[in-house]
Design brief:
Elements lengths: L2 H34 L18 H11 L3 H15 L5 H8 L7 H9 L3 E3 L4 E3 L8 H9 L5 E2 L10 H10 L3 E5 L6 E5 L10 H8 L7 H10 L8 H10 L31 H5 L1
Antiparallel strand pairs: 1-2, 3-5, 4-5
Length: 278
């Protein structure tokens, strides 16, 4: 091969090597660019919509809202009584699931209920006596010198029974049980009028035999210008209307003197005349 032919062959090899090097450089540049700007990842699949796993609570709400009007009212009144707070119909719905906006019968009956106060916007519990603490309770009891039934005070506020016992322990009130109905009556004990009773008078008082029937006691009180704290006739009439028959009180057994009787009053011979005759 001539010198010119060898030179042409060398130039072709040089061009081929240059082309290979350029291809390698271009491939490296493409790889670096791909690393700097990676291809966007495939979008994650949207999870399938599942039914709520709160089925039990939803069933409870549905059962409450389908319950009779009286049952729904009872649920609301219990909420108001336990919390002693004022609630809007929406707050009542959140607290006990009674939808008063949707059920007009519940709304109207609650608005007219004597145990519920409605100010046009909120519902709250209404006790028989509006007292909130021990000082107000004592002030109320002192307004009833003839006594006030504890059952009428029980729903005033949550700690009322503890406060009654505290006032009793402090000597500011008396808590006495009714002879007939066994209900407690609260009486004021005015500390400004300390009274000391002689033992003889106490003994005389305890020796007085009271009538067995509460009706007779109430009549005697009325004759002496005192108002009884109870109304036995009204209570018994209501019990009869409800079909409740009063229990008959056992009669006292009459004891008679026999030959086996131990004679302790031998100095009163007229007591034993019947025994001698027999």
């Amino acid at each position: 091969m001539s010198l010119q032919g060898k030179l042409d062959s060398f130039k072709k090899q040089q061009a081929k090597c240059q082309s290979t090097l350029s291809s390698i450089a271009a491939s490296k540049a493409a790889n670096q660019k791909q690393k700097q700007n990676p291809a966007p990842a495939a979008a994650s699949p949207v999870p399938a919509i599942k039914f709520s796993n709160d089925t039990e609570r939803l069933q409870q709400i549905n059962g409450i809202r389908k319950a009779p009007v009286g049952a729904q009212m009872k649920r609301v009144i219990e909420l108001l009584y336990e919390t002693r707070q004022a609630f809007t119909p929406e707050q009542i719905n959140e607290a006990c699931y009674v939808d008063m906006r949707a059920n007009k019968d519940v709304f109207e009956n609650m608005r007219k209920n004597p145990k519920v106060k409605f100010d046009g916007e909120r519902f709250s519990y209404k006790s028989k006596h509006d007292v909130k603490d021990k000082s107000q309770l004592l002030y109320l009891i002192r307004k009833f010198p003839e006594g006030i039934a504890v059952i009428d005070l029980k729903d005033s506020y949550p700690a009322v029974m503890e406060d009654l016992q505290g006032l009793k322990a402090a000597g500011q009130i008396w808590l006495l049980s009714n002879f007939d109905s066994q209900e407690d009556i609260a009486y004021p004990n005015d500390p400004r009028v300390p009274i000391k009773v002689d033992d003889d008078l106490k003994q005389l008082f305890r020796g007085i035999e009271l009538p067995r029937d509460m009706l007779d006691i109430e009549r005697d009180l009325q004759k002496n210008g005192m108002k009884p704290a109870t109304n036995t006739a009204k209570r018994r009439s209501a019990a009869q209307m409800q079909g409740i028959t009063p229990k008959a009180k056992p009669k006292a057994k009459k004891t008679e003197i026999s030959k086996r009787t131990k004679l302790t009053n031998a100095h009163l011979p007229e007591l034993f005349q019947k025994l001698k005759d027999s």
